[in-house]
């Protein structure tokens, strides 16, 4: 059992199934801390699991700790919970999670009691006397339509007390009811209550166009966000500020109710607290997200020197290890330049090469707001903040010649009648005739602000939106053009005559060529790379530049977690969701003063809590009644395979990720590996590992694995990013197997009484399913021979969610 998943999140009984499961790294508790003789190795951090509050939490309601595990064997866990100030939330607790089984003892059977007349009047004379789905006909009337689900269709009866899930009845004092006694009977199928439950699901995609602000209606169609889709992939940079865009622009998402635990409030002005969206309810296009061109662009002041080029050189050993000539690449990243434009596939062999290979960048300080961690030179950072694109290199980028190629004739009706239908369709000096007559009086043409009108004689054409150097058309028709795509004819503009005279300009290329040498990859000087800062011949008039796209194409080797809206500390005492409507109670005897197992617990200032209704309990356990245990409740197969959950890899105390550090540290610094040359050295620092989820069928299906290794083994399409798992709300994870659930009934606390994030510290975890052996089990190698044996058998460092922790909101 390599991982333990633990849940500590608000889970109102009406929105079951969407709690956040916090990944517990069993290896970091069970395995000895790795050591290193490398003097540069940082200290291995103390391990903990962090739990932050989300907008879906009702922080004023009691919560309890829950463990979710794939193992059916006994597991012992020793843990404690503190808040960010060190206050004790849950004192050190040892819990022996018991073995789980679906076996029902032979003595568990229906008792067929006599039904009192007052009960018969509402439920019928045979209610519960034998196995039947008694709640199916009137489940919503008896229990409330927000609590219905598959449990309505399950058979049950009044049964003997030795049934494993026997609970005392509120209708018939002294009697017990059980579903286990009827486990040989099939549920009603199809179960129509599942459809009702789905309609009431707060995470169901909503068409929210009716509440759009006027500004949103001007930018978006009214169906925007109504279903799962990558709604922002085309226009994210135009519709949002540079510091707002990120890889979420390429993710699939939709609008949901604010009660959805993974809901995030809208970035659109005036929509705060009104519109909420979630990507966890939608499946992403893994390849699209991995190659997403959008990155956050914080506003960097002109006097901020952190983004200035550091003028440092990459070690020759790295260049040589790539098979490149050191003298040719000695200046790699030293100053601004398109350093990857000619050998991008060498520096990034596992990436999908595109226009980002031809953009300019340099090495910068990690404090630069737009810096990105390098995968080529671990520990260094790069940025394009102070770098301009080199037009000649962009227009001739061999990794995407189509982006800046002429797009052909515009659709009919796009151009004014005074222009030829084929205007701008191919490389030509389209403005060489009567240039002043056409553009001199146009206030948007830039004629009066341009000191030199040589552009009248330059060749150009309309290009695709994806071309980074393209400019918006003066005509305001939504199309883009480029001069750099084309070679110029041998002509000079005659201001007085408003003509282009056939005089070859100094340094001009051969006349008549419509595809320049730049379109075939730029200019070279012997074997050395060289590039232009700009062409001296380019005197095109100013136009509205597409600046949001100037730095949007960057290597898919790093992306930042989505900006999520934090909860205001001043409003943690406000209930985050409306309470569910009261459940109809035909009989006053059904009103409980104790929980389902007859116990009452208190949290905070004596606030009572406990499961006080059958739907509330069953909905948390996949539609079945759990078994009573010494520590609370346990449910076998509470979550079947292919269940969608939010899984968080989050740590308190300043470290980005709360799982996988053991593996990352050991393979980067540990003495089991040769730090300088061993082939399993990682790209990312162990404190900031870059994990993906393996979606390829096989033994590692569902594992978390370092992205570069996952790309190498399976390709980007089978390796969706797990970056958003490092947020408090977690990421969407589809379970590959069934999970069991254990509620620790006596661990109640009220979140608003504590300051987040909460820190869960694990002292010990052990069980029959936990094998610490480096070769056969979960621990990384500690010796060189073990590392070599693992490499021989291609044992990839990865981990699968097997144990999780969380907290459930209970009723009070």
Automatic annotation (TrEMBL):
Signal peptide span: 1-17
Designated gene of the protein: DNAH12
Protein name as it appears in the record: DNAH12 protein
Low complexity biased stretches: 522-560
Classification lineage: Eukaryota, Sar, Alveolata, Dinophyceae, Suessiales
Organism: Symbiodinium necroappetens
Region (Disordered), start-end ranges: 505-601
Keywords on record: Signal
């Amino acid at each position: 059992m390599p991982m333990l998943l633990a849940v500590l999140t608000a889970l109102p009984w009406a929105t079951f199934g969407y709690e956040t499961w916090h990944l517990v790294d069993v290896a970091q508790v069970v395995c000895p801390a790795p050591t290193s003789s490398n003097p540069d190795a940082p200290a291995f951090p103390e391990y903990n699991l962090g739990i932050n509050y989300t907008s879906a939490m009702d922080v004023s309601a009691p919560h309890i700790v829950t463990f979710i595990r794939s193992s059916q064997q006994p597991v012992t866990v020793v843990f404690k919970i503190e808040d960010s100030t060190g206050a004790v939330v849950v004192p050190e607790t040892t819990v022996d999670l018991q073995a789980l089984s679906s076996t029902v003892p032979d003595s568990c059977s229906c008792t067929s009691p006599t039904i009192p007349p007052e009960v018969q009047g509402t439920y019928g004379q045979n209610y519960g006397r034998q196995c039947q789905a008694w709640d199916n006909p009137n489940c919503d009337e008896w229990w409330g339509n927000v609590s219905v689900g598959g449990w309505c269709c399950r058979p049950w009866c009044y049964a003997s007390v030795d049934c494993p899930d026997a609970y005392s009845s509120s209708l018939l004092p002294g009697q017990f009811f059980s579903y286990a006694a009827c486990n040989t009977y099939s549920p009603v199928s199809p179960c129509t209550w599942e459809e009702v439950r789905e309609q009431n699901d707060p995470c169901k995609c909503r068409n929210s166009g009716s509440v759009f602000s006027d500004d949103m209606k001007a930018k978006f169609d009214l169906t925007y966000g109504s279903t799962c889709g990558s709604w922002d992939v085309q226009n994210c940079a135009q519709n949002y500020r540079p510091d707002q865009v990120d890889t979420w622009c390429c993710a699939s998402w939709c609008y949901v109710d604010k009660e959805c635990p993974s809901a995030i409030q809208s970035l659109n002005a005036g929509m705060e607290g009104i519109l909420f969206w979630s990507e966890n309810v939608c499946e992403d296009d893994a390849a699209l997200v991995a190659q997403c061109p959008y990155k956050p662009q914080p506003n960097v002041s002109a006097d901020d020197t952190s983004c200035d080029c550091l003028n440092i050189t990459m070690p020759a050993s790295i260049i040589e290890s790539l098979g490149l000539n050191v003298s040719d690449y000695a200046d790699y990243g030293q100053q601004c330049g398109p350093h990857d434009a000619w050998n991008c596939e060498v520096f990034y062999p596992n990436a999908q090469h595109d226009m980002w290979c031809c953009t300019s960048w340099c090495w910068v300080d990690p404090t630069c707001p737009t810096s990105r961690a390098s995968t080529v030179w671990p520990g260094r950072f790069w940025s394009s903040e102070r770098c301009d694109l080199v037009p000649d290199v962009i227009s001739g980028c061999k990794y995407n010649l189509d982006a800046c190629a002429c797009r052909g004739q515009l659709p009919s009706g796009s151009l004014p009648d005074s222009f030829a239908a084929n205007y701008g369709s191919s490389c030509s000096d389209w403005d060489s005739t009567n240039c002043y007559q056409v553009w001199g009086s146009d206030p948007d043409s830039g004629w009066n602000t341009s000191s030199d009108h040589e552009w009248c004689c330059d060749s150009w054409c309309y290009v695709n939106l994806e071309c980074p150097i393209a400019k918006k058309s003066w005509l305001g028709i939504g199309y883009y053009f480029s001069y750099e795509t084309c070679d110029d004819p041998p002509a000079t503009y005659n201001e007085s005559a408003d003509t282009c005279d056939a005089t070859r300009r100094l340094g001009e290329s051969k006349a008549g060529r419509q595809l320049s040498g730049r379109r075939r990859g730029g200019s070279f000087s012997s074997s050395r790379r060289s590039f232009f800062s700009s062409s001296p011949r380019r005197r095109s008039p100013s136009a509205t530049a597409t600046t949001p796209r100037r730095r949007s194409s960057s290597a898919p080797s790093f992306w930042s977690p989505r900006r999520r809206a934090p909860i205001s500390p001043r409003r943690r005492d406000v209930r985050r969701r409306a309470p569910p409507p009261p459940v109809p109670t035909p009989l006053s005897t059904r009103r409980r003063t104790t929980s389902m197992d007859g116990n009452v617990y208190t949290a905070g200032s004596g606030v009572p809590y406990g499961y006080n209704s059958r739907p509330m309990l069953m909905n948390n356990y996949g539609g079945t009644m759990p078994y009573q245990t010494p520590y609370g409740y346990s449910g076998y197969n509470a979550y079947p395979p292919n269940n969608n959950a939010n899984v968080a890899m989050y740590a308190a105390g300043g470290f980005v990720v709360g799982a996988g550090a053991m593996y990352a540290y050991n393979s980067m610094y540990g003495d089991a590996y040769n730090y300088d040359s061993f082939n399993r050295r990682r790209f990312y620092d162990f404190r900031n590992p870059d994990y993906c989820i393996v979606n390829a069928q096989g033994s590692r299906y569902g594992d978390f694995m370092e992205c570069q290794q996952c790309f190498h083994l399976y390709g980007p399409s089978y390796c969706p990013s797990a970056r958003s798992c490092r947020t408090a709300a977690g990421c969407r994870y589809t379970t590959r197997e069934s999970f069991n659930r254990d509620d620790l009934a006596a661990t109640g606390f009220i979140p608003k009484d504590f300051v987040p994030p909460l820190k869960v510290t694990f002292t010990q975890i052990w069980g029959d399913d936990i094998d610490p052996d480096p070769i056969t089990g979960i621990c990384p190698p500690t010796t060189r021979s073990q590392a070599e044996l693992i490499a021989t058998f291609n044992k990839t460092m990865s981990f699968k969610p097997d144990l999780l922790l969380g907290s459930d909101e209970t009723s009070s």
